Amino acid sequence: MSDILIITSYFPPETGAASNRIFHLANGLEQHHFNVSVITPLPNYPKGKIFDAYKGKFRQTSTENNIKIHRLWIYASNSKNKILRLFAMLSYSFSLIWFFISNKIPNKVIVQSPPLLVAFTCMLFLRRKKRKLILNVSDLWPIAGLELGAFKKNFSYRVLERIEHFNYKKADLVLGQSNEILKHVMSLCPNKNVSLYRNFPDFNPPTIEEAVSNEKIKVVYAGLLGIAQGIYKLCEHLDYSNIEFHIYGAGAEKEKIEAFISKNPNLPITYHGEISRELLHKELLKYDLTIIPLLNRIYGSVPSKIFEYARLGLPMVYFGGGEGETVIRNYNLGWVAESSNYKDLNSVLNKVKKEDLTITSKTIIQKTALQHFNFNKQLNELIVIV
Protein backbone atom coordinates (compact mmCIF):
# COMPACT_ATOMS: atom_id res chain seq x y z
CA MET A 1 0.00 0.00 0.00
CA SER A 2 1.51 3.31 -1.13
CA ASP A 3 1.38 6.37 1.15
CA ILE A 4 0.15 9.63 -0.35
CA LEU A 5 -0.49 13.02 1.23
CA ILE A 6 -2.92 15.63 -0.11
CA ILE A 7 -2.45 19.25 0.97
CA THR A 8 -5.45 21.49 0.40
CA SER A 9 -7.04 24.68 1.68
CA TYR A 10 -10.58 23.28 1.34
CA PHE A 11 -12.09 20.02 2.56
CA PRO A 12 -15.43 18.79 3.98
CA PRO A 13 -17.36 19.72 6.06
CA GLU A 14 -16.72 22.85 4.01
CA THR A 15 -18.92 23.09 0.94
CA GLY A 16 -18.14 24.11 -2.62
CA ALA A 17 -16.44 22.79 -5.73
CA ALA A 18 -12.90 22.81 -4.32
CA SER A 19 -13.88 20.87 -1.21
CA ASN A 20 -15.87 18.30 -3.20
CA ARG A 21 -13.08 17.86 -5.75
CA ILE A 22 -10.41 17.06 -3.18
CA PHE A 23 -12.74 14.82 -1.18
CA HIS A 24 -13.51 12.70 -4.25
CA LEU A 25 -9.81 12.51 -5.12
CA ALA A 26 -8.86 11.42 -1.59
CA ASN A 27 -11.71 8.93 -1.36
CA GLY A 28 -10.96 7.52 -4.82
CA LEU A 29 -7.28 6.99 -4.01
CA GLU A 30 -8.18 5.30 -0.73
CA GLN A 31 -10.50 2.90 -2.56
CA HIS A 32 -7.60 2.07 -4.89
CA HIS A 33 -5.53 0.91 -1.90
CA PHE A 34 -3.53 4.07 -1.23
CA ASN A 35 -2.86 5.00 2.37
CA VAL A 36 -4.25 8.56 2.12
CA SER A 37 -3.76 11.42 4.54
CA VAL A 38 -4.95 15.00 4.13
CA ILE A 39 -3.72 18.29 5.55
CA THR A 40 -6.27 21.09 5.58
CA PRO A 41 -7.13 24.13 7.74
CA LEU A 42 -9.73 24.01 10.47
CA PRO A 43 -13.04 24.37 8.56
CA ASN A 44 -13.88 28.03 7.90
CA TYR A 45 -14.98 28.45 4.25
CA PRO A 46 -16.92 30.34 2.89
CA LYS A 47 -17.91 32.42 5.94
CA GLY A 48 -14.34 33.11 7.05
CA LYS A 49 -15.08 31.89 10.57
CA ILE A 50 -14.03 28.63 12.21
CA PHE A 51 -17.01 26.26 12.31
CA ASP A 52 -18.59 25.93 15.76
CA ALA A 53 -17.55 22.28 16.17
CA TYR A 54 -13.89 23.25 15.76
CA LYS A 55 -13.71 26.52 17.70
CA GLY A 56 -11.02 26.74 20.34
CA LYS A 57 -8.90 24.03 18.71
CA PHE A 58 -5.34 24.57 17.52
CA ARG A 59 -5.18 21.28 15.65
CA GLN A 60 -7.34 18.20 15.18
CA THR A 61 -6.48 14.81 13.72
CA SER A 62 -9.20 12.34 12.88
CA THR A 63 -9.81 9.33 10.64
CA GLU A 64 -12.79 9.58 8.32
CA ASN A 65 -13.58 7.03 5.60
CA ASN A 66 -10.17 5.42 6.32
CA ILE A 67 -8.47 8.76 5.52
CA LYS A 68 -6.36 10.46 8.19
CA ILE A 69 -7.20 14.16 8.23
CA HIS A 70 -4.98 16.73 9.92
CA ARG A 71 -6.81 20.02 10.44
CA LEU A 72 -4.39 22.85 11.23
CA TRP A 73 -4.78 26.30 12.72
CA ILE A 74 -5.56 29.20 10.42
CA TYR A 75 -6.41 32.84 11.00
CA ALA A 76 -9.84 32.58 9.36
CA SER A 77 -11.03 35.59 7.36
CA ASN A 78 -12.94 36.40 4.21
CA SER A 79 -12.33 40.12 4.64
CA LYS A 80 -11.95 42.30 1.54
CA ASN A 81 -8.90 43.78 3.23
CA LYS A 82 -5.94 42.42 1.27
CA ILE A 83 -3.63 42.50 4.30
CA LEU A 84 -6.00 40.36 6.36
CA ARG A 85 -6.48 37.93 3.45
CA LEU A 86 -2.71 37.68 3.06
CA PHE A 87 -2.27 37.07 6.78
CA ALA A 88 -4.89 34.30 6.63
CA MET A 89 -2.92 32.52 3.89
CA LEU A 90 0.38 33.04 5.69
CA SER A 91 -1.06 31.68 8.94
CA TYR A 92 -1.90 28.39 7.22
CA SER A 93 1.55 28.35 5.61
CA PHE A 94 3.13 28.73 9.07
CA SER A 95 1.02 25.84 10.35
CA LEU A 96 2.15 23.73 7.40
CA ILE A 97 5.83 24.46 8.07
CA TRP A 98 5.39 23.45 11.71
CA PHE A 99 3.67 20.24 10.58
CA PHE A 100 6.44 19.44 8.06
CA ILE A 101 9.11 19.87 10.71
CA SER A 102 7.38 17.69 13.33
CA ASN A 103 5.96 14.90 11.13
CA LYS A 104 7.19 12.35 8.62
CA ILE A 105 5.97 13.28 5.14
CA PRO A 106 5.23 10.58 2.52
CA ASN A 107 7.21 10.38 -0.70
CA LYS A 108 4.14 11.23 -2.78
CA VAL A 109 2.41 14.55 -2.16
CA ILE A 110 -0.45 16.21 -4.05
CA VAL A 111 -0.62 19.97 -3.50
CA GLN A 112 -3.71 21.98 -4.41
CA SER A 113 -3.19 25.39 -6.05
CA PRO A 114 -4.40 28.08 -5.58
CA PRO A 115 -3.71 29.56 -3.05
CA LEU A 116 -0.30 30.31 -4.54
CA LEU A 117 1.43 31.03 -1.23
CA VAL A 118 0.27 27.75 0.30
CA ALA A 119 1.50 25.85 -2.77
CA PHE A 120 4.78 27.79 -2.64
CA THR A 121 5.28 26.78 1.01
CA CYS A 122 4.83 23.12 0.08
CA MET A 123 7.09 23.28 -2.98
CA LEU A 124 9.80 25.06 -1.02
CA PHE A 125 9.85 22.88 2.09
CA LEU A 126 9.01 19.45 0.64
CA ARG A 127 11.33 19.33 -2.37
CA ARG A 128 13.82 16.50 -2.29
CA LYS A 129 15.01 13.96 -4.84
CA LYS A 130 13.10 10.95 -3.55
CA ARG A 131 9.80 12.77 -3.08
CA LYS A 132 7.30 13.22 -5.93
CA LEU A 133 5.47 16.56 -5.78
CA ILE A 134 2.25 16.73 -7.78
CA LEU A 135 0.73 20.19 -8.22
CA ASN A 136 -3.03 20.13 -8.87
CA VAL A 137 -3.88 23.47 -10.53
CA SER A 138 -7.58 24.32 -10.60
CA ASP A 139 -7.24 28.03 -11.46
CA LEU A 140 -4.44 30.15 -12.88
CA TRP A 141 -3.24 32.73 -10.40
CA PRO A 142 -2.25 35.52 -10.57
CA ILE A 143 -3.79 35.74 -14.09
CA ALA A 144 -7.30 35.02 -12.74
CA GLY A 145 -6.91 37.75 -10.13
CA LEU A 146 -5.90 40.21 -12.83
CA GLU A 147 -8.95 39.34 -14.96
CA LEU A 148 -11.23 39.63 -11.91
CA GLY A 149 -9.81 43.07 -11.13
CA ALA A 150 -8.30 41.95 -7.83
CA PHE A 151 -4.72 42.64 -8.99
CA LYS A 152 -2.91 45.25 -11.03
CA LYS A 153 0.31 44.69 -12.97
CA ASN A 154 2.64 46.11 -10.35
CA PHE A 155 5.51 44.87 -8.20
CA SER A 156 3.26 42.60 -6.12
CA TYR A 157 1.86 41.01 -9.26
CA ARG A 158 5.37 40.31 -10.58
CA VAL A 159 6.26 38.67 -7.25
CA LEU A 160 3.21 36.40 -7.58
CA GLU A 161 4.25 35.52 -11.14
CA ARG A 162 7.67 34.46 -9.86
CA ILE A 163 6.04 32.34 -7.14
CA GLU A 164 3.76 30.75 -9.74
CA HIS A 165 6.74 29.93 -11.98
CA PHE A 166 8.65 28.49 -9.00
CA ASN A 167 5.72 26.21 -8.14
CA TYR A 168 5.54 24.80 -11.67
CA LYS A 169 9.30 24.40 -11.87
CA LYS A 170 9.58 22.41 -8.63
CA ALA A 171 6.59 20.15 -9.31
CA ASP A 172 7.38 16.72 -10.74
CA LEU A 173 3.92 16.57 -12.30
CA VAL A 174 1.35 19.31 -12.91
CA LEU A 175 -2.33 18.39 -13.11
CA GLY A 176 -4.53 21.00 -14.79
CA GLN A 177 -8.32 21.07 -14.85
CA SER A 178 -8.33 22.63 -18.33
CA ASN A 179 -6.29 22.53 -21.52
CA GLU A 180 -5.74 26.28 -21.14
CA ILE A 181 -4.01 25.68 -17.80
CA LEU A 182 -1.72 23.04 -19.30
CA LYS A 183 -0.89 25.32 -22.23
CA HIS A 184 0.05 28.10 -19.81
CA VAL A 185 2.21 25.81 -17.66
CA MET A 186 4.02 24.52 -20.76
CA SER A 187 4.66 28.09 -21.91
CA LEU A 188 6.57 28.72 -18.68
CA CYS A 189 8.13 25.24 -18.29
CA PRO A 190 8.30 23.67 -21.78
CA ASN A 191 9.57 20.26 -20.61
CA LYS A 192 7.20 19.92 -17.66
CA ASN A 193 5.28 16.67 -17.21
CA VAL A 194 1.60 17.67 -17.32
CA SER A 195 -1.75 15.89 -17.42
CA LEU A 196 -5.37 16.96 -17.83
CA TYR A 197 -7.39 16.15 -14.70
CA ARG A 198 -10.93 17.49 -14.92
CA ASN A 199 -13.17 18.15 -11.92
CA PHE A 200 -15.46 15.18 -12.58
CA PRO A 201 -17.94 14.38 -9.78
CA ASP A 202 -18.44 10.97 -8.23
CA PHE A 203 -22.02 10.28 -7.16
CA ASN A 204 -24.79 7.92 -8.21
CA PRO A 205 -26.69 9.46 -11.14
CA PRO A 206 -30.34 10.06 -10.24
CA THR A 207 -33.39 8.93 -12.16
CA ILE A 208 -34.54 11.88 -14.24
CA GLU A 209 -38.08 13.05 -13.63
CA GLU A 210 -40.35 15.54 -15.38
CA ALA A 211 -40.00 19.00 -13.88
CA VAL A 212 -43.15 20.53 -12.40
CA SER A 213 -45.13 22.11 -15.23
CA ASN A 214 -45.17 25.89 -15.32
CA GLU A 215 -45.75 28.58 -17.90
CA LYS A 216 -42.29 30.00 -17.35
CA ILE A 217 -39.01 28.14 -17.59
CA LYS A 218 -37.60 27.48 -14.12
CA VAL A 219 -33.95 28.57 -14.20
CA VAL A 220 -31.70 27.76 -11.23
CA TYR A 221 -28.26 28.85 -10.05
CA ALA A 222 -26.59 26.91 -7.24
CA GLY A 223 -23.17 27.66 -5.83
CA LEU A 224 -20.97 30.39 -4.43
CA LEU A 225 -22.50 33.85 -4.38
CA GLY A 226 -19.16 35.55 -4.85
CA ILE A 227 -17.83 38.45 -6.89
CA ALA A 228 -16.54 36.19 -9.67
CA GLN A 229 -19.95 34.60 -10.27
CA GLY A 230 -21.77 37.93 -10.57
CA ILE A 231 -25.19 36.68 -9.43
CA TYR A 232 -26.26 40.10 -8.15
CA LYS A 233 -25.60 41.66 -11.55
CA LEU A 234 -27.39 38.73 -13.15
CA CYS A 235 -30.48 39.48 -11.05
CA GLU A 236 -30.36 43.08 -12.26
CA HIS A 237 -30.02 42.30 -15.97
CA LEU A 238 -32.13 39.19 -16.59
CA ASP A 239 -35.26 39.46 -18.73
CA TYR A 240 -37.91 37.64 -16.68
CA SER A 241 -40.62 37.53 -19.34
CA ASN A 242 -39.85 33.87 -20.15
CA ILE A 243 -38.25 32.66 -16.92
CA GLU A 244 -38.34 32.54 -13.15
CA PHE A 245 -35.00 32.54 -11.34
CA HIS A 246 -34.12 30.40 -8.29
CA ILE A 247 -30.89 30.80 -6.30
CA TYR A 248 -29.13 28.46 -3.85
CA GLY A 249 -25.87 29.12 -2.03
CA ALA A 250 -23.97 31.58 0.15
CA GLY A 251 -21.17 34.06 -0.24
CA ALA A 252 -20.14 37.70 -0.30
CA GLU A 253 -23.12 38.85 -2.41
CA LYS A 254 -25.80 37.11 -0.36
CA GLU A 255 -27.03 40.24 1.46
CA LYS A 256 -27.06 42.32 -1.74
CA ILE A 257 -29.11 39.65 -3.53
CA GLU A 258 -31.59 39.40 -0.66
CA ALA A 259 -31.92 43.20 -0.60
CA PHE A 260 -32.51 43.28 -4.36
CA ILE A 261 -35.24 40.65 -4.10
CA SER A 262 -36.86 42.58 -1.24
CA LYS A 263 -36.86 45.81 -3.25
CA ASN A 264 -38.24 44.08 -6.36
CA PRO A 265 -41.07 41.82 -5.11
CA ASN A 266 -42.65 41.84 -8.58
CA LEU A 267 -39.71 39.94 -10.08
CA PRO A 268 -39.91 36.10 -10.07
CA ILE A 269 -36.69 35.57 -8.08
CA THR A 270 -36.48 33.20 -5.12
CA TYR A 271 -33.49 32.79 -2.83
CA HIS A 272 -33.55 29.38 -1.12
CA GLY A 273 -30.46 29.73 1.07
CA GLU A 274 -27.66 27.19 1.42
CA ILE A 275 -28.43 23.46 1.67
CA SER A 276 -26.37 20.26 1.71
CA ARG A 277 -25.03 18.90 -1.57
CA GLU A 278 -27.12 15.72 -1.28
CA LEU A 279 -30.33 17.68 -0.81
CA LEU A 280 -29.32 20.14 -3.52
CA HIS A 281 -29.03 17.34 -6.08
CA LYS A 282 -32.63 16.34 -5.32
CA GLU A 283 -33.82 19.95 -5.53
CA LEU A 284 -32.08 20.59 -8.86
CA LEU A 285 -34.12 17.84 -10.50
CA LYS A 286 -37.18 20.08 -10.11
CA TYR A 287 -35.82 22.71 -12.48
CA ASP A 288 -35.86 23.03 -16.26
CA LEU A 289 -32.54 24.71 -16.81
CA THR A 290 -29.45 25.90 -14.93
CA ILE A 291 -27.24 28.89 -15.62
CA ILE A 292 -23.46 28.87 -15.13
CA PRO A 293 -22.18 32.45 -15.10
CA LEU A 294 -18.85 34.17 -14.60
CA LEU A 295 -18.77 37.95 -14.24
CA ASN A 296 -15.69 38.03 -16.49
CA ARG A 297 -14.06 35.42 -18.68
CA ILE A 298 -11.26 33.81 -16.63
CA TYR A 299 -8.45 32.17 -18.58
CA GLY A 300 -8.04 28.52 -17.64
CA SER A 301 -11.36 28.25 -15.83
CA VAL A 302 -13.80 25.43 -16.58
CA PRO A 303 -16.45 25.42 -13.82
CA SER A 304 -16.89 21.98 -12.27
CA LYS A 305 -20.64 22.64 -12.28
CA ILE A 306 -20.63 21.67 -15.97
CA PHE A 307 -19.71 18.08 -15.17
CA GLU A 308 -21.86 17.87 -12.04
CA TYR A 309 -25.02 19.17 -13.72
CA ALA A 310 -24.47 16.98 -16.77
CA ARG A 311 -24.49 13.93 -14.49
CA LEU A 312 -27.82 15.18 -13.12
CA GLY A 313 -29.13 15.52 -16.67
CA LEU A 314 -29.70 19.25 -16.23
CA PRO A 315 -29.49 21.39 -19.41
CA MET A 316 -27.25 24.44 -19.06
CA VAL A 317 -26.88 27.98 -20.28
CA TYR A 318 -23.20 28.82 -20.06
CA PHE A 319 -22.31 32.48 -19.62
CA GLY A 320 -18.62 32.57 -18.83
CA GLY A 321 -16.51 32.36 -21.99
CA GLY A 322 -13.35 30.37 -22.55
CA GLU A 323 -12.92 26.62 -22.53
CA GLY A 324 -16.23 26.08 -20.76
CA GLU A 325 -17.99 27.15 -23.96
CA THR A 326 -16.09 24.49 -25.89
CA VAL A 327 -17.17 21.75 -23.47
CA ILE A 328 -20.84 22.79 -23.64
CA ARG A 329 -20.81 22.90 -27.44
CA ASN A 330 -18.75 19.77 -28.05
CA TYR A 331 -20.96 17.60 -25.85
CA ASN A 332 -24.31 19.30 -26.62
CA LEU A 333 -25.01 20.11 -22.98
CA GLY A 334 -27.12 23.22 -23.58
CA TRP A 335 -26.70 26.78 -24.80
CA VAL A 336 -23.88 29.34 -24.80
CA ALA A 337 -24.26 33.12 -24.39
CA GLU A 338 -21.46 35.55 -25.11
CA SER A 339 -19.48 36.32 -21.97
CA SER A 340 -20.50 39.58 -20.21
CA ASN A 341 -23.12 40.28 -22.91
CA TYR A 342 -26.45 40.36 -21.05
CA LYS A 343 -28.36 41.24 -24.20
CA ASP A 344 -27.13 38.05 -25.81
CA LEU A 345 -27.87 36.07 -22.65
CA ASN A 346 -31.49 37.25 -22.62
CA SER A 347 -31.77 36.52 -26.33
CA VAL A 348 -30.60 32.94 -25.72
CA LEU A 349 -32.97 32.46 -22.78
CA ASN A 350 -35.92 33.79 -24.76
CA LYS A 351 -35.23 31.26 -27.53
CA VAL A 352 -35.32 28.27 -25.16
CA LYS A 353 -38.66 26.47 -25.30
CA LYS A 354 -40.30 24.00 -22.93
CA GLU A 355 -40.17 21.34 -25.64
CA ASP A 356 -36.35 21.64 -25.60
CA LEU A 357 -36.31 20.53 -21.94
CA THR A 358 -37.93 17.09 -21.99
CA ILE A 359 -37.01 13.94 -20.06
CA THR A 360 -35.55 12.59 -23.31
CA SER A 361 -33.20 15.55 -23.81
CA LYS A 362 -32.13 15.44 -20.16
CA THR A 363 -31.47 11.69 -20.36
CA ILE A 364 -29.22 12.23 -23.38
CA ILE A 365 -27.18 14.78 -21.40
CA GLN A 366 -26.86 12.38 -18.48
CA LYS A 367 -25.72 9.52 -20.76
CA THR A 368 -23.12 11.84 -22.28
CA ALA A 369 -21.80 12.62 -18.81
CA LEU A 370 -21.61 8.97 -17.79
CA GLN A 371 -19.65 8.16 -20.95
CA HIS A 372 -17.30 11.12 -21.21
CA PHE A 373 -17.01 12.57 -17.68
CA ASN A 374 -16.19 9.34 -15.87
CA PHE A 375 -14.46 9.93 -12.55
CA ASN A 376 -13.20 6.36 -12.07
CA LYS A 377 -11.75 6.12 -15.57
CA GLN A 378 -9.93 9.41 -15.08
CA LEU A 379 -8.69 8.35 -11.63
CA ASN A 380 -7.32 5.08 -13.04
CA GLU A 381 -5.37 7.06 -15.64
CA LEU A 382 -4.02 9.32 -12.88
CA ILE A 383 -2.89 6.40 -10.71
CA VAL A 384 -0.74 5.13 -13.57
CA ILE A 385 1.30 8.34 -13.69
CA VAL A 386 1.31 9.06 -9.94
UniProtKB/TrEMBL annotation:
Stored InterPro entries: Glyco_trans_1, Glyco_trans_4-like_N, Glycosyltransferase_grp1
Domain called Glycosyl transferase family: residue spans: 214-359
Keywords for this protein: Membrane, Transmembrane, Transmembrane helix
Record-annotated membrane-spanning stretches: 83-103, 109-126
Keyword Iron-sulfur: no
Glycosyltransferase subfamily 4-like N-terminal domain boundaries: 17-184
Alphabetical list of SUPFAM superfamilies matching this protein: UDP-Glycosyltransferase/glycogen phosphorylase (SSF53756)
Record flagged with keyword Oxidoreductase: no
Pfam families: Glyco_trans_4_4, Glycos_transf_1
Annotated PANTHER family: SULFOQUINOVOSYL TRANSFERASE SQD2
Protein name: Glycosyltransferase involved in cell wall biosynthesis
